[in-house]
């Protein structure tokens, strides 16, 4: 049994245990414990869903391979399913990769205009607005901590605080 299979099995068991605990009314008498269990359950749910999709695709691939020996029309489906299984496997591997411990932290973002005068300041203002809108769409709270504006309304520099409730703004710049 490989290490990744053991990790998946442990996560599946933890997910099932959390599902059972969250269904128990006793847990909800302690709001902090219920919130903690709910957050962990929400973290594990996409991983469990990706694993189940992968296992389903692997089963479909195995069936298609068996049927391809007697019916050539399944041969094309085998290649398609092999690609799908590889994509799902990569997706699951990415989800299981260790995260930076600072990912859930809030951030302070600083945008400076640099060389280029007023046009550079206008671009910096556009960039700051882009970050603000992106953060607001994600449900994060944005606070302008400091700003120095130019004569045309651009930013010579702007400092923003981006805070979240569980979803990570720390990793948002990594795409």
Low-pLDDT windows of residues: none
Structural domain tally: 2
Distance from N terminus to C terminus (CA atoms, Å) equals 33 Å
Total number of beta strands: 3
Q: What is the count of helical runs?
A: 4
The strand order across the widest sheet is 1-3-2
Into which percentage range does the β-strand content fall?
Answer: 5-15%
Q: How much helix, percentage-wise, in residues?
A: 55-70%
Q: How would a textbook summarize the main sheet? A: 3 strands, antiparallel
CATH fold category name of the largest domain: Methane Monooxygenase Hydroxylase, Chain G, domain 1
Mean of all residue-level pLDDT scores: 86
- Architecture of the largest domain in CATH? Up-down Bundle
N-to-C SSE string, H for helix and E for strand: HHHEHEE
Structural class: alpha+beta
CATH class of the largest domain: Mainly Alpha
Q: Mind telling me the C-alpha Rg?
A: 24 Å
InterPro entries: PCRF, Pep_chain_release_fac_I_sf, Prokaryotic/Mito_RF
Protein name: PCRF domain protein
Keywords: Methylation
């Amino acid at each position: 049994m490989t290490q990744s299979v053991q990790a998946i099995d442990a996560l599946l068991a933890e997910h099932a245990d959390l599902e059972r605990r969250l269904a128990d009314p006793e847990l909800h008498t302690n709001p902090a414990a219920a919130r903690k269990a709910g957050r962990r359950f929400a973290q594990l749910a996409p991983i469990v869903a990706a694993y189940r999709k992968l296992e389903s695709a692997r089963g479909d691939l195995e069936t298609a391979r068996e049927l391809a020996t007697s019916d050539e029309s399944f041969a094309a489906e085998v290649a398609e399913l092999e690609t799908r299984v590889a994509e799902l496997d990569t997706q699951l591997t990415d989800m299981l990769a260790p995260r930076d411990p600072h990912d859930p932290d809030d951030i302070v973002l600083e945008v400076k205009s640099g060389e280029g005068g007023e046009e550079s300041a206008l671009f910096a203002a556009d960039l700051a607005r882009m970050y603000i809108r992106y953060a607001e769409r994600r449900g994060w709270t944005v606070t302008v901590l400091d700003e120095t504006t130019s004569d045309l309304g651009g930013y010579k520099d702007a400092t923003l605080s981006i805070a979240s409730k569980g979803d990570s703004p720390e990793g948002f710049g990594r795409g």
